[in-house]
Amino acid sequence: MKKYIYLFAIGFTIGYHGFAQNAPLDSNLINIHRESNDSNKVKLYNKLHQSLLGYKDSESILYSKQGLYIAKQMKWEKGEAVMLANIAESFANLGFYDSSFKYYYKAIDINERISSYDNLISNYINLSSSAKNCKSDYLLATQFCFKALALSEKHNAPMHRSTIYNNLATLYLDQSNVNKSISYASKGLDESQLKGDSIGVAASCRILSKGLLLSNDLSKSSDYLKRALSIYQSNEMRLEKADCIASLALLIKNDFDSIIKLRLEAQALFELGNLTHPNAITNMGNLGIAYHDAVRYQDSSTKLLNSSQKSTYLKLSKEYLSKTIKLCHEIGNTSDASYFTGCLAELQATQGDFRNAYLNFRIFQSYQDSIYSQEYKNQLAEIEGKHTIDIKNAEIKNKEIALKNRNYLLLSLGATALSLLGILFALTKQSRDRKVHNETLSILNRQLEESNQIKLKFLSILSHDLRSPIARLVSFLNLQKELPEAINATDQKMIEDHIRTSATTLLSNMESLLLWSKSNSEQFKIVPERILLYPLLKEISKGLPNSILVNIDCSEQITVYTDRNILWVILSNLTSNVIKAIEKVHNPVITYTAVQVKTKTILTIADNGPGFSNSFLSSNLNDINSSYHGYGWFIINDMAQIIQADLKCYNENGAVVEIAI
């Protein structure tokens, strides 16, 4: 895995916004000699610091000390704190950790005393950067970041918040906690966009790109990186542009020539500034890795190198890695020094120098075990958790103060509240009474609606299941009366059979409807009793036409405990429906089967007819408006629900109706 550059945007404010990078140096030098020893001259020294920062940090320190001297003479504490922070910033870039901390803490003491919170927050941000870049102390860097964030939230100073979020995102990225890194970088991006800070947007995009790269989301990673590069190019920010170009190399797979070209381009830009800058050192190390990768990962998809080219690439790899490790040690960056020592060990293994490869790998592994240990991660989590707890405690304290103030207000308004209490009580009682009346009306309306629905069902069933049999009966009688000569003896017998069947059906339907209508009344109660099933089935089968073969497969001991009348209606209606279904079937057969399964009795009525249609099987038997079945099926299903019986219909060599009681 390539080493990812640690990004910390270092900035400050002394009452006005920061200056453009690489400000005209000669112009500032000319103007500084024209100014008298006042605040304007201190500000010019500050501009000189910004112009030389990351480029000629040693000179920057000299100019900042001159500005510090003038600020002290003027007793301008704010300017003094700014100059101290400038000196600390330059020492950090040179890798002098102790000197950097010394001057930062002096600046912090002044800013705390004069309540310059924006500058104080900036000091802690820069301290975090020094702790990471100069000392590789992730815990201390994280503590400083959360200290800056706590101050920003406490004093409602959002100016540096995007930088803080970006720094936290980078810290978590270095700890391979990609989800937290993306979360904080997204917060930083939101803050920068809200302020219209394009440089902050670019910094967040740069970190998001690297987090998404680790998440293998190459498309989004590329989009964010290109967005950052565009901003840096338009603002002529050389170091940040170099870093983006170096990051573009991370998005390329196996094309080592392109990777090396991009890293060399970034290296050329870094060399125009400060080669000890952490980003420059990291790119140099990654350039060494790229030369090694070009040799060890050769295959049909990559450029093949001859032996001379391989030797040259390995030599360049060793030179870049060795120089990178040396620079890391010079600035105290033990984290990067350890990582690139591990890369050097891999190179030495490729070259056959296994002794040095083993020794360097031990150095690498020792550091990795300490920095990525679970204890270390727990400490980082503890720092973040403490920050969260501090925020909650502050919220609780604010709520306590607000509660105390509210209590005072309530006491002062007590007399008025007592006078209004009677009115409030009356209004409450009136509202409660109205609510009770509304609920009563709602219940009555619901009962009326249910009653209307039952009446509608009853009229629909009456129209369908009573009118039709009567109409057929009247038609038969009229035909017999008006055209008796058109009916022979055979037809006469058939008509009589139809009349008898229609009358029987009519009677059965009337009994069913009356019982169903009664079951929908409030006074209806089922009367369960123990019923022998075989005699009941025998009795029902007696009324069947002689042309139908009836089979009853039921033990004489099987009983059911339910309401006899409702069960009779269900079985009679089902049998009547079966008769209709098989009236055109040759050698019709009806089979009743009953078995006892645990606590239930399963009764099936099967026929050898054409079976149920698919539309019938897919319809809801409980829906009276369904067009796929008659109202008789609705009554049967409704009755089954009353006695808590399960009704199923399916096809198996004919139609089968199953009742579980």
Task: Give the key terms.
five-stranded mixed beta sheet; 7 strands; alpha+beta; two-stranded antiparallel ribbon; 661 residues
Give a structural overview.
The protein has 661 residues and is α+β, with helices and mostly antiparallel strands. It has 24 helices and seven strands. The strands form two sheets. The protein has a five-stranded mixed beta sheet. A two-stranded antiparallel ribbon has the order 1-3. Helix 2 packs antiparallel against helix 3, helix 10 packs antiparallel against helix 11 and helix 21 packs across helix 22. The protein starts with 24 loop residues before the first helix and ends with a strand. The N terminus is likely disordered.
Helix content: over 70%
- Mean pLDDT, all residues: 78
Distance between the termini: 70 Å
β-sheet strand percentage: 5-15%
Can you count the beta strands? 7
Shape field: elongated
What spatial order of strands do you see in the largest sheet? Answer: 2-4-5-7-6
Nearest-angstrom radius of gyration? 46 Å
The chain-level structural class is: alpha+beta
Gist?
The chain is an alpha+beta fold and 661 residues long.
